[in-house]
Amino acid sequence: MNTDCEVGQSRQVLNELKEALVRGDEFIRLRAHLQLTKSARSYSETVLQIDRLLEQMTRHWQEGIVPFARIADRYRTYDPDLQDLGWPRHLPARVVEGTGTLSSGSNVFILFPDSLGLEPQEASDTFGFELIDVLQHHFIESGLRAAREVLDLDSQRRAQTALTPTKLGMVIYLIAAIHEISHRAGPWRVLPCSPRSVSLSEFHQGVMGELAANTLSVVMLPEFPEIQYYVTLQHLLSTGRRGFRHDPLSASINEDCDCWISIYYWNKLLEYGALQPNGHTWHLNHELALSTYRAILEEIDALAKVIAATAVHEHDGLVHNWMSRQVDYADRGFTLPPTLQAVYHRCQSIGEIPHFTPLLQYRG
User: For residues 312, 314, 320 and 325, what is the CA-based torsion angle, rounded to 10 degrees?
Assistant: First the structure.
């Protein structure tokens, strides 16, 4: 953000979005320069549909299995200092039409006011949209297609049963909401900001913050096998493959924190026996996978305690050394384990980031 004029324009966009949400508009037109997580700052012109029915269905489904009050109690037990346990102001949205990076499929969520380059001035300035149709498209065209190449029939059947087409949207939105709550909790929290006692590079902070939130989302809701299946398959067979065609030794591990987390999950699931070879395929054991995520949470929380007792200038070194013990590391950086290289070779005909094209046209 370089000029007062640009700041004013972005503030106007933010205020218009807030007014639309207060009115309960179903369709919201967004015209703005946006800084999104997986692309450079650029102009997007997009119409979003706020899927309030999906929001209601997801909350009803979740409450029927485990009340949110019980979930909140689990977070309080995990982090007694947790300040905000409210349901996030994070809405499910669908990209109806548009041009720019928000409509291409490269990004799967948008957070305000960060994406506009603004700092929040009041609580209502902070909200977000989860792009449900983009995520569904990614998972079906990348994660599930790769699963058919890699997993044995029993694992495919269990995953497909958990993630039926009618349930997938609810699973994605529930994960998005719980993921944001997880970002507020524990020693690796990033919302509303990271602990002052922790000082890390952007990459290390991204790895540890996302790793903790992803893992907490699985551990805190064990009643939902759908969450574990989605997180596991999306990371191992979709996110982790980013960049493999250009670099079959490292993919994007050294630049993309989500990619590094995916390879780490693969290694840990193998270590705890949740992933086992079955002929030319792999078997995924749901129960052992859940135990693996619990062990991961214990491990990274133990690392946080070590860091808290160490001088600030040593934090990056401690995290780097820990990461280097978890994922193969050499002079050129982190590399894929041979087992995963073989898996990704089998999936080369499947797009790493499937291009998303909005199917509907809305003229409002």
Answer: -120
Q: How many CA atoms lie within 13 A of 112 on its CB side?
A: 26
Q: How many C-beta atoms surround the C-beta of residue 95 within 10 A? A: 24
Query: What is the DSSP track for 57-103?
Result: HHHHHHHHHS-HHHHHHHHHHH-TT----SPPSEEEEEEEEEESGGG
Each residue's pLDDT tens digit, 218-259: 999 999 999 999 999 999 999 999 999 999 999 999 999 999
CA distance 178 to 213: 8
pTM flag (> 0.85): yes
Helices 315-326 and 202-219: crossing angle, nearest 10°? Answer: 60
Closest CA to 213 of 190, 235, 183: 183
User: d(Cα 236, Cα 107) in Å, to the nearest integer?
Assistant: 18
Cβ atoms of 103 and 358 closer than 8 Å = yes
CA-wise closest residue to 134 among 49, 221, 201, 33: 49
Q: How far apart are CA 290 and CA 130, in angstroms?
A: 25
Dist. CA 120–CA 192, nearest whole Å: 11
